[in-house]
Structure prediction request, 263 residues.
Amino acid sequence: MGQRHQLFIIAKIDGRYRGLAALHNQRLNGLSAVARCCRTLQVFQAAENRIPIQQELLAARSRPEAFWNRELTYDYRRSDCAEIIAPFPFISTALTLGSSFDPFNGVHDRVFPLQFNTPFDGGDNNDGVTIIDVTQPAHPRYCFVFFEELERVDCEGSDDGSDDGSDHESDDESDDEPDDEPDDESRTETYTPLSASDYFNTYVDNGYWEISEQSRELLESMKQWPLIDIATLDQTWPRASWRSVSGESGSVGLIDPEISDFK
Prediction:
């Protein structure tokens, strides 16, 4: 159980986008996911972290194609465990630090590392994923992606336990009126790069979260970072059918950056 969410770090390596690190958080969604994304972007963008990140991006260029295509495994007891989970240890550590700390409540979550090349839909998931592009560490990009419909929270209560389960309307009203209209309102944009506002508003529209002053401030702060475009996602995970918010193919956000910092 939980609000299962995965986070991924990608970058353009020798002209092609690759996955560099991935991890699993058992309880992360809505505003909490946005807050962890914001913190992770700050960690990768920090000037004091730029040199080791650049060093690992340069080191990634020496990896053969077989390395990037290595078979997915969840057996982390193997002797090559470190190479499977964290071949780029500084980047993996930065992701862990940024995504496990809750700045609102001052607590750390338990997070679980995944194989570096885990596909975006390769984890146990029901609350979408966070993707961060660190091709240019000084100017990281991000997006959120759902690849399954988010279930709407109705009078029965929320799946995540935030509701006490008490009814907000009578059973008679529930039985007499079909639930067609909420279904229309609860549509989730899947396989689409979403901004922090679009991702959070999906939870608001489906009854999980409410707008607050805290959410407004956080969503406003996220506007400083550009959104990952469809072309980048398609190059990283080409087997998916990526689409824009309108449901049409095309780029979203800025065109993927050149790796001029590392030439």
